[in-house]
Amino acid sequence: MRRVRRQKLAELRELGYDPFPYSYPVTHHSSALQGLEDDQFPAEVHIAGRVVSLRRMGKASFAHLQDHQGRQQIYVKRDILGDDIYRDLFGRVDLGDFLGVQGRVFRTRTGEITVEVARMELLAKSLRPLPGVKEKDGTAFDPFEDKEQRYRRRYLDLIANPDVKQVFVRRAQVIRHLRELLDSEGFIEVETPVLQPVYGGASARPFKTYHNTLDQTLYLRIADELYLKRLIIGGFDKVYEIAKNFRNEGMDKSHNPEFTALEFYWAYADYNQAMDFTESLLRSVAESSGGTRLKFQGQELDLAVPFARHSYFEILNKYADKDLSRLDSAGQLNSFAAGRGISLEKDLNYGQALNKLFDLLVEPHLVQPTFIVDYPKALSPLAKTHRSGNADLVERFELFMAGMEFANAFSELNDPLDQRERLEAQAQLRAAGDEEAQPVDEDFLEAQEYGMPPMAGVGIGVDRLVMLLTGQDSIKDVILFPAMRPQQP
RNA sequence: GACUCGGUAGCUCAGCUGGUAGAGCAGUGGCCUUUUAAGCCAUUGGCCGCGGGUUCGAAUCCCGCCCGAGUCACCA
Predict the structure, then answer these.
(1) How many angstroms is C1' of B11 away from CA of A100?
(2) Distance, angstroms, CA A127 to C1' B7?
(3) Summary count for chain A: helices (H), strands (E)
(4) Which is nearest to A267 in space by CA: A238, A226, A295?
(5) C-alpha distances in Å from residue A16, one per residue of A21, A52, A123, A386
(6) How many CA atoms does the CB half-sphere of A66 hold within 13 Å?
(7) Measuring from the CA of residue A95 to each C1', which nucleotide is nearest?
């Protein structure tokens, strides 16, 4: 099949047609003609697109050209186009080729608005056959649905499955709306390093790389946090970044090794203000993207309803049916878990064991938007100790919806001596085998010693937000090129 | 990482308890000047994911591996 198309390509060149010209003066996109009344038809149009259907009937033919907005039917009649071009050029057009056509607009017997082609140019020859692009009334026949091929060759997925393109259009709208809201609140968008000598700001294993000239090991960022805080130290009062983070961990329906996070930092605010702002931010994004009532993974949720707020131990104790805040060692948590028939992995430290219990006992219940507040300090080395005086708690919230975490935020710790102790405790956990504990970032500690104002910081998982708003069950369906193992040669 | 399911033509899929690969669409040739999954006639096309084994004979049975999906485990 590829040989046949190469042959056509060669023949076209011999006949003097350029199969790969430089440009085409498009005047109308496919959607511009849809829904027009007959007396509104433009006198003449130039349209361009990929041939996705082709019905030849001897001396006349119909085809559809697909552009970024949809499909437009064209009518190609030999007596209008001319014998030579109809035979030599149009006769060698295949599904998948790009055409530019010029002509008048009319309505066919069956009512479809159609361009009658007076002039035709081949804009690009296609050498490989497309997967199933046949469709009627939006239903594809032999639809291209092999997930592996769709992810590996997303361009074919986008050509053959218009709904997929729509998801990514909405993704762009969601991100644009987040920017607009933050900009309008006076946040400044910044860019911070992807390549970092010391990674931090989250609990995760990093990707490691190497800079030849600097002769230095560098890590791909797992979070923007510590750089954005440096900017608040430097005098920006409100900053945000929408950026890729990289975590060297497993992949599943809600995890991709590189993912997009929004982080924003707000000087002089605390986590209560950040919580209110986060709630209104998400509600507003939902309103601008199809409404606050969402169906997601078989569950229905409504972001218009005020988000529930529960403290960490309040809700953990409820589902554990026991006051877990009184257990203060990994051993005690392990005994508790064993009593409930839950087997925790061996060698978990206190924080890991507690975190694990929360994930197992509580998270699945958090379907409607719920803020969990006031986390144990052991889980939150960058968050400020709770103002209530309880030295074991920090001012932190996480937002859960549909059993998944969407946001994480603190009243940020700004006491440099406290911060040093917490990071050093993390370093000890690392030394004890916790691969996700954070290393000490001396440069950051030094920056903090110059004085860091009180502030709130929030991180939001953008991919997950898009999943929620577009009803996609897998993160792979909101990332254009999700991570895949290399294909066998 | 564990388990389950899957990988056959460009796409969607058949192929039963082993006998040497099939359909529709796409492609190619022919007919057809308002069709729309156009139609009619003819026809090309396959390391049956990879490697090994059993067998006279393997797409089919057995073992190993690769890739994907789902579930679980870990993380956002």
Answers:
(1) 26
(2) 25
(3) 15, 20
(4) A238
(5) 12, 25, 14, 78
(6) 19
(7) B26
Residues A396, A380: contact at Cβ < 8 Å? yes
User: For A1 and B10, how far is CA from C1' in angstroms?
Assistant: 8
Q: Which of strand B's nucleotides are less than 7 A from any protein C-beta?
A: 1, 6-7, 10-13, 24-28, 31-39, 49-50, 66-76
Q: Which amino acid is at A208?
A: K
Whether the beta carbon of A136 falls within 7 A of nucleic chain B: the reply is yes
pTM for the complete prediction? 0.92
List pLDDT tens digits, range A405-449. Answer: 999 999 999 999 999 999 999 988 888 878 888 899 999 999 999
Instruction: Write the single-letter amino acid at A68.
Output: H
Distance from C-alpha of A461 to C-alpha of A472, rounded to nearest angstrom = 15
Alpha helices in A404-455 (DSSP H): 416-431, 442-449
Distance CA A174, CA A262 (A): 12
Stretch (H or E) spanning A394: strand A393-401
Contact, A262 vs A176, CB < 8 A?
no
Written as one letter, the residue type at A448 is Q
Report if CB A145 to strand B is under 7 Å. yes
Euclidean distance between CA atoms A434 and A431, whole angstroms = 7
Given a contact cutoff of 8 angstroms between Cβ atoms, the answer to whether A460 and A278 are in contact is yes
pLDDT at A224: 94
- Residue ranges, chain A, pLDDT below 70: 1, 138, 346, 487-489
Taking alpha carbons only, the member of A425, A424, A435, A379 closest to residue A208 is A435
Q: Among A75, A76, A104, which residue's Cα sits nearest to residue A90? A: A76
pLDDT the model gives residue A214: 93
- E-strand ranges in A4-89 read 45-56, 60-67, 70-77
Using CA atoms, how far apart are residues A221 and A258, in angstroms rounded to an integer?
10
Per the CB < 8 A criterion, the answer to whether A403 and A437 are in contact is no
Backbone angles phi, psi at A18, to 5 degrees: -90, 110
Instruction: State the Rg of chain A over Cα.
Output: 29
How far apart CA A460 and CA A424 sit, in angstroms, is 27
Cα A181 to Cα A178, A262, A276: the distances in Å are 5, 12, 14
A94 CB contact with strand B at below 7 Å: yes
Length of chain A: 489
Report pLDDT digits (tens) over A322-372: 888 888 888 888 888 877 777 777 677 888 888 888 888 898 889 999 999
